[in-house]
Amino acid sequence: QVQLVESGGGLVKPGGSLRLSCTASGFTWGSLNIGWFRESPGKAREQIAAITTTGYSTFYNDAVKGRFFISTDHKKTIFLDLTNLEPADSGVYHCGTIQLTYGLASDIYDTWGQGTRVTVSS
User: Fold this and answer.
1) Residue partners of 44: CB distance under 8 A and separation at least 6
2) How far apart are CA 54 and CA 12, in angstroms?
3) What are phi and psi of 89, to 5 degrees?
4) Phi and psi (nearest 5°) for 87?
5) Which of 21, 48, 62, 71 is deepest in the core (most CB within 10 A)?
């Protein structure tokens, strides 16, 4: 079955950058789409970005477009580069298999990892 493991989170000062990694296994490359979402206390789950493993089309939440960048090594890892981080970006970042029938608006994840925590200090 699909397994996803996130890494790369940590403590960073406002304006800083991080690279998050999502290592995926248990599926045929090209059969699923991978997305990132984040969670924090008091906030609803927020979509970040997604990428298809067939064609590598990308999708971004307008709120982070231009600051966050999704990419892949085309093998088993999906990256999320976070730049110009703000305290509001703090939270647990998860990667998961996402249905993209309606783009990020679908907000339908079938499987996701435990997440990696990003803390942006003030």
Assistant:
1) none
2) 33
3) -80, -5
4) -55, -35
5) 48
Confidence label for 108 from pLDDT (cuts 50, 70 and 90):
confident
Q: Residue 98 pLDDT > 90, yes or no?
A: yes
- Give the pair of three-digit tokens for residue 44: 């609803």
**What backbone phi and psi angles, to 5 degrees, belong to 81?**
-90, 120
At 92, the amino acid letter reads: V
Enclosing H/E stretch for 101: strand 101-104
Supply 95's token pair.
């990667």
**Average pLDDT, stretch 52-67?**
92
As a whole number, mean pLDDT of residues 71-84 equals 95
State the DSSP code for 88. Answer: G
Sheet holding 68-72, edge to edge: 3-7, 18-25, 77-82, 68-72
Q: Which of 33-37, 41-45, 60-64, 116-120 has the lowest mean pLDDT?
A: 41-45
The pLDDT-based confidence of 41 (bands split at 50, 70, 90) is: confident
Q: Is residue 42 packed enough to be buried (19+ CB in 10 Å), middle (13-18) or exposed (0-12)?
A: exposed
